[in-house]
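Lecture notes, unit on binding sites. The following record was shown on slide 14. It pairs a sequence with calcium ion.
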Amino acid sequence: MRGVLIALLFAIPLLSGLSVAHEPERFTVIVREDTHSPLEANLVVNDSVQYINVDSRENITHEIGLDLNGDGDFDDPDEFSSGPLNYECDRVNDTDCRTAWTFFFNDTSLIGNYILSDLLSDGTEIEVRLNIAADIHIENAPAIGECFGDCEEEETTEEMKRSSQTDLQKGLMLAGMTMFGGASVILLSTIMQKL
Ligand SMILES: [Ca+2]
């Protein structure tokens, strides 16, 4: 019975760990003439977001990215961008032409709240927000070696481990004492027989 209880104690954190594990999701943002739908995307590490340009005006392209120093381009260190997004592409003659951009967040270094710029080829700009949160499952991974606010759960797990070790020690001691007791009885009865 105790064995079953210990097994259950170990199974609970394992099960809860599985339940918080995040399945990668793919978000879609529709890039319109003067806005994005939605204007703010909330993602978790391992998710991806796809920006689809539906601005059908002629010769207008959108370029979405992070302009850290606000100089109107995405070419500076740590900046990134989609490259120009067109409404439609002649894929036969222009293989580089794109109408959508998918951004995968598979690195914890990308965690943060970003204000991105959608720079249009006509000189206008749309400000959009992108928030990337940590995956709870990753937060608990020992490789990071830091506590992100789930310390309590880790401590509980540690306590459970310690507690079960004590139970094991108790069990071993009990077994030892029983064997010692049994041996003593045999020894005593042998002595008694000899007397
Ligand atoms: Ca820049």
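Take-home: The radius of gyration is 31 Å.
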